[in-house]
Structures are given as structure tokens and as C-alpha cells.
């Protein structure tokens, strides 16, 4: 019973361990939102480690099942059998003990009766001898009594001898036959019990040894996965994904203030671009978490006062959720995935059809991917067209199989779809050829002495947080798009925690970038306090977040953050 309990508890531990390992593997398994990371070797290695860890959990569950079925159940059945057998042997031993005790009591009774009769016969004889000397008449009667006592003593002696012989015989049988047989049976039972424990221990070791090769294979697979990580390849893939294709800015020309001539600055001058960036009122630095708008003007609370001010924040790029839903419902099958991703991440997937708002390298990748997808759709449409034509030919040859004219609407629909796809393919191929030629011309103009690694990095990485680099309006749009993309990537990682709540005192139309619209009396979550610039960062839900004027709201901070404060 003790070993059975031990094996059962061990099986429960193995099962609990397997469950916890399985839950851990499921918890850290890559989500769909991180499927783009599957291209990196370290992500693949981690996913393989989780799969092998799940396989280890399966083996642990199999081990627990084998311990329960092969050992615990069998030992429980054998335990009941051994208990019944031991009870039988103990009952036989008690019966033998009771028999020898009964024989001993009978012997003692015969012995005491014989002793009593002998003493009575001896007294009767003395009385008889004394009476003979005194009177002859009384002597006859005394002699007759003495003879009777002697006969009774003789019978008691015979009973005593018989009882003594019977007890000696029973005692010999008890100690030489019955008890040794009972002990031998108990010993055999104990040996069989120990054999069962031995078999159970052996089965337990064999059950664990059976899963060890699989577990060892899982560990080997984990080692292979760790060895497959290639840091250089992963970093190159990151560079390949995010490189822009822009040329770095040119050298800053000397400005001769001593001359009376009008100073000229290079078009690619950093100072000129910095002044241009100040005019646009926006810093294009990719690692800023949020592009915080400038402080609102000190005007009366009104929606137009803040939104129409020259110091108001730049236009807000996020579109309303209704607009994104309309895009999803009206888009084709090829762009629905992008619309769904836009709905999830809270950014608009809209943009120019030729992707000119993207950097050259990113635009080339986007157009190339679009060309590949359209080519695949064209191939599928052609295969469907060929199948319909073959079916129409069969119907024309065998009218009983179907009506050939019923296929005409479907053929016409496939034909229109092919024409539309081919036209779209031609447009995208033209745009792709333009990008390729632009990139080739740009690479030919680069100086051979430039550092090659700068060609694979976004241009904004070569700038300081105090300035920006823009050559034209499309480049500025590119930077805004890339900055927004960086912001969304950081937002997907971990949203800022709420530090309190606020209630809007006036309505506010957040039509600019970074701002959030609100109605009067609406309750929002406070994410970031006013830093002295007149704006407070709030959140309506996990998707809608932005800045609102501090003068438009009444803020209630949590006691754990800064105590209860009120902004009016």
C-alpha cells in the first residue's frame, strides 16, 4: 500500500508538471500579430524550442498514464488479494492455537480430578483401617467405601493418562505440522508480495526509460535550434526590411558672410533642412514614442479656437473606425488583409496607389509584392477560365450533361476580372520599373568612398533629434509614414498604463495628428500628465489614444500616481 501511494503521487506530479509545461509553451507560442517575426532565425529557434517542450510534456503525460495503468491499478488489486490471503492464514493460526489450548485445559482437568480421587481414596483407606480395630460392623462399611474410592481413583488415572497422551499428540502436531505449515504459507505470501514490488519498481524504471529517448531527442532538437540562430542574418533581414533607399545628405557648403553676395546654401544642407523642419513644426525622429503636438493657444475653450490656431498640432493621420470599416467592406480580396491589420493597429492603410509616399526601397518591395500577388490571381483566374471553357465544350458535345449557355455569365465575369487584373498588373509593373530605374540612377551617383552600411539604414537614423532631412514633399510624407509605423510598432509592444481618469468640460474636435476628439462630459483614461505645454495624453480604449488640451478637461489622478489633483 505504501509503494502504491508513492507511485500514485509520483504520477500526479508528472501529470501536473506536464500540464504546467504545456501551458507555458502555449503562453509563449508566437501569436498571429507577431507572424512577421517568423523570418528571423532566433524566432524560429524559439518556436522550435517551444514545440519540443510541448513534446516533452506529452512524454510526461504518457509516463504518468503508464504508471497509473501498469503499476498503480495492478498493485491495488494485488494488495486486496494479499490482504484476503493473510487473513485466511491468521484464522488458521488462531484455530490451531485454540485447539492446543483446549487440549491443555482438558489435560489439566483430568490431572486435578485424578489427584483429588487419589487423596480421597487414601483417606477412605485410613478410615477403614481405624474402624476395623474398633468395630467389626462398622469396618465392613468403611472397607466398602474405601474400595469405591480406589476404583474412582483408578478411573481418574486412566482418564488422566488418556488426556496426557492426547495432549502430547496434539502438541507435537501443533508445533511440528500445523504452525510450520501456516508460517510457510505466510512466508510464501510475503515473497510473492516482494516479487510484486520488485516487478512494479522495474516497470516504473522501464516506463521512464521508454520516454527518455524521446525526451533526449527533444533536447537534441533544442540544441540544434539554438545552434541554428544566425545573428548576422537576422540583422541583415532587419536592415533589408527597414532600409529606405534615400541618399544621405550632402556636405554643408561654406557660407561667406564677409562677402556682399547673397549666401547660398546647398539644397541638401542640414541647416536648410533644419529650418524647413521647424517651419513644418515636426521632428522626424523614428525612436520617439509619440509625436506630441505643440501647446494650444491661450484662447477661450472652443473647438475652432484650438483646431484653427496656427500653433495647433499637425493633421492627425489616424482615420475614424467607420472609415476603416467602409474600406474593409468595399476593398477587394487582396487588400482586405491590409484593412484588417489597419483596424487592429489603429492606422490607416490608405495611400497613393503607386506607393509614392513610401521610401524608394520600401516602395519597390511593396510594388514587387503587389505584382507577385496579382500574377498569382491572374494565374488562378486563367485556370478557372480554362476549366469553364473545357466544361462548355463538354456540354456542347453532350447536351444531356448540362446547358452550355449557363456558363456564359461566369465566363464573362472571369474575363472582366482578368482584364482588370492585367490592367492593374501593367500599372504596377510600370511603377516598379520607375522605382528600379530611380534606384539604379541613385546608386550610380553615389560616391565610392561612402560607408556601405549607411546605404542600408533609414536616412532618419543619420540625423540628430534636433533636425530633419527632407528633399521634397514626398520625402517628408515618407518620414511621417515611417515615424507613424515606428510609433505603431512600439504601441503594439506594450501600451502605457493608465494613471488616472479625466472628464471633458468642453467638446473638442481632434482633427489634427496626435489629438483625440471628445464630447462634453466624456470620461477618458489619463496616460500622461501635462508636461507644461498645455496638452494631456488620454486614451478612450486600447485603439484610440491622443492628446487633448488640458484646459478642456478635469483630471483625477490615482492616489498611487500622484494623489487626487484637479485641472480646471
UniProtKB/TrEMBL annotation:
Residue ranges of region Disordered?
A: 118-159, 282-367
* Residues covered by the SH3 domain: 497-558
SMART domains from the entry? SH3
According to the record, the segments passing through the membrane are none
Basic and acidic residues bias: start-end ranges:
118-143
Q: Which GO biological process annotations does it have?
A: endocytosis; signal transduction
Q: What is its main location?
A: membrane
List the InterPro entries. Answer: AH/BAR_dom_sf, F_BAR_dom, FCH_dom, HR1_rho-bd, HR1_TOCA, SH3-like_dom_sf, SH3_domain
Q: Does the keyword Protein transport apply?
A: no
The F-BAR domain, residue ranges: 1-234
Instruction: Quote the biased-composition stretches of kind Basic residues, using this chain's numbering.
Output: 334-344
Gene Ontology CC terms, in alphabetical order: cell cortex; cytoskeleton; plasma membrane
Write out the biased-composition intervals (Polar residues): 323-333
Pfam families registered for this protein in UniProt? FCH, HR1_TOCA, SH3_1
Q: Which UniProt keywords apply?
A: Cell membrane, Coiled coil, Cytoplasm, Cytoskeleton, Endocytosis, Lipid-binding, Membrane, SH3 domain
Annotated REM-1 domain residues: 357-434
Top-rank taxon: Eukaryota
The UniProt GO MF terms for this protein read: lipid binding
What's the family?
Belongs to the FNBP1 family.
| Protein known as | Formin binding protein 1a
Query: Which source organism does the UniProt entry give?
Result: Echeneis naucrates
**From which lineage does this chain's organism come?**
Eukaryota, Metazoa, Chordata, Craniata, Vertebrata
* Gene this protein is translated from: fnbp1a
